[in-house]
Specification:
The complex is a heterodimer of chains A (290) and B (171). By secondary structure, chain A is of the alpha+beta class. Chain A has helices at residues 4-7, 11-29, 38-64, 71-109, 278-289; strands at residues 120-128, 136-139, 152-155, 158-166, 171-175, 182-187, 193-198, 208-214, 224-227, 239-248, 254-261, 270-274. In chain A, the strands form two sheets. A six-stranded antiparallel β-barrel of chain A has the order 1-2-5-4-3-12. Chain A has a six-stranded antiparallel β-barrel with strand order 6-7-8-11-10-9. In chain A, a hairpin with a 4-residue loop joins strand 4 and strand 5. Chain A starts with a helix and ends with a helix. Chain B is mainly alpha-helical. Chain B has a single domain, classed as Orthogonal Bundle (Arp2/3 complex 21 kDa subunit ARPC3), CATH 1.10.1760. Chain B contains six helices and no strands. Chain B has helices spanning 2-16, 33-45, 47-65, 71-84, 96-117, 126-163. The chains are: A alpha+beta (290), B mainly alpha (171). Chains A and B meet through helix 1, helix 2, helix 3, strand 1 and strand 2 of A and helix 1, helix 3, helix 4 and helix 6 of B.
Chain lengths: 290, 171
Amino acid sequence: MLKFKKILIPKKYVLTIVTIITMVTIVVTLPNRNQVTMIENGLGYVVVPIQKILTKIQKWSNENIFFIFHAYELQDKNAKLVKELDELRYENTILQQYKQDNERLRNLLKLDQKYPEYPKVGAQVIGKDPGNWYNMFLIDKGTNHGLAIDMVVMADSGLVGRIVEVGFNYAKVLSIIDDTSSVSAQTLRTNEVAIIRGDKTLMDEGLCRIQHINIDAQIVKGDEMVTSHLGDLYPPGILIGTITEIKTESNGLTKYGLLEPAVDFQHLEEVLVIDKPWKGKKTNLKESTQ
Amino acid sequence: MRIIVVSGILLLYLILQPTYIQHIRMMGIIPNFAVMIIVSFGLLRGSVEGAIIGFALGLLQDIFFGRAIGFYALIGMFIGYVCGIPNKKYYRENYILPFFLVILSTLAQGIITYIFTFLIRGRTSFLFFIQHIIFPEVVYTAALSLIVYRLIYSVNERVEAREKVRRKHFS
């Protein structure tokens, strides 16, 4: 490092030159960074395994040491869960019957499966955004495991986000509560279409904003929203969250609302990746219809 | 020797900030250790090394969590460069200067990040961002800055003691 000092006569020129080069790279890489360079992949091979080990240690210590602090809650929780389990079991048997009915009727009508089972791959969250501005995180699988850009990430209960960048052994996930994310969604009950956007100003409460709801739309507080069939990126039918508030926009033409995501983004540890990019499928479909 | 120690610190930051340091979030705010490291090295080692370390650390941030390569690298480079200017003129045991430089740098980074990633997309509620992100981040970072400065100071002292033998060759 100090060797530079001897060559370095015009310090400020070097600074300006580096600034200009960096600005060019910013402009070049800003729109979309699909290609991950060798340098990034090399760094990934150094950092990701260590982070993986750290995550494992953390998980182990949480499970084996810190559970003591929550021990007093366990009994209450257990009773609650047992009750819930009973209810869900009952519900499930009914739903199974519905499902069979549904399948039989669909076969009769020769309809395709509406919400196909998506193939999924499990992955571990190994790092979260080091700053305060974004909601991105790293998972421990990459192209080596068959992941690619724009694949959809879910947690057990709902939509988490999508992959925006992928290296050999890691992938960067942009969550739906990030300020730059937007998802095309519809209500489960009435099929009203809207757009769900992350909003930094709502981040403290962990909510998202719902925009462009039709003024006549039959939407009430408590409705569940799923990804819609209109979206390019997200396959339809994935649960996003429940509506907590609906208001009319000041222009009186549309409504907007707030949505509580089904996923707990604060304590995200394991995610599922649908390892088939939906985008490709959709364009194929368009081509075939044209 | 120095290169190994510095890259060790940078790697440590890169590994710990997304994992363990996430647990000390207060009200959703995480302290900005990158700025603390850059300011400390800038003050202790001068503009050139400050700028190089700032650039490297920013670049690592960009690679793993950034949108565009070079954004944090550029900010980090300038923070390191500016904080290196008083290097020759102050006593290293003086803790007031690093404290205030950390405050100013965090503030500057926060405002620049707001302007170029939020204001540009039409998020005009500047007051909200000041209140809920930038100001808490500055306070939290400043509170921890002296600890980090002190740590890097003693690490630097040790490295310099080792280099003392060879110092006459390149200063």
